[in-house]
Amino acid sequence: MVGYCPICGKPVYFGEKKRSLGRDYHPLCLKCQQCQRQLTPGQHAEHDEKPYCTNCYMKMFGTRGTSPRNQSNQKPPKYNLMRTNSLSTRIYVQQT
Prior knowledge:
Helix content: under 10%
Structural class: mainly beta
Protein name: Cysteine-rich protein 1-like isoform X1
CATH class: Mainly Beta
Distance between the termini: 39 Å
CATH superfamily: Cysteine Rich Protein
Organism: Salmo salar (Atlantic salmon)
InterPro entries: Znf_LIM
Keywords: LIM domain, Metal-binding, Zinc
Radius of gyration: 17 Å
CATH topology: Cysteine Rich Protein
Number of strands: 8
Strand order of the largest sheet: 1-2
């Protein structure tokens, strides 16, 4: 069965595929959507079904610091665990 690359939409054949986060990519298509750095399967984060390196992901979608003033009436923010393939990397994102 031939899968299709989620980045370019072309068929990905068995001999050339890089499988990560449940999808098959061409080796040159598996790169960070922000900085264009080549990524290794399973060692990246995903947002809106697009791969990002850990640094760009945290800069763009990671937790934001909050100001200490005016927090007495506010509820603490809720966080969701984003899906990753790495056993040691867990990325939490604040719900909006």
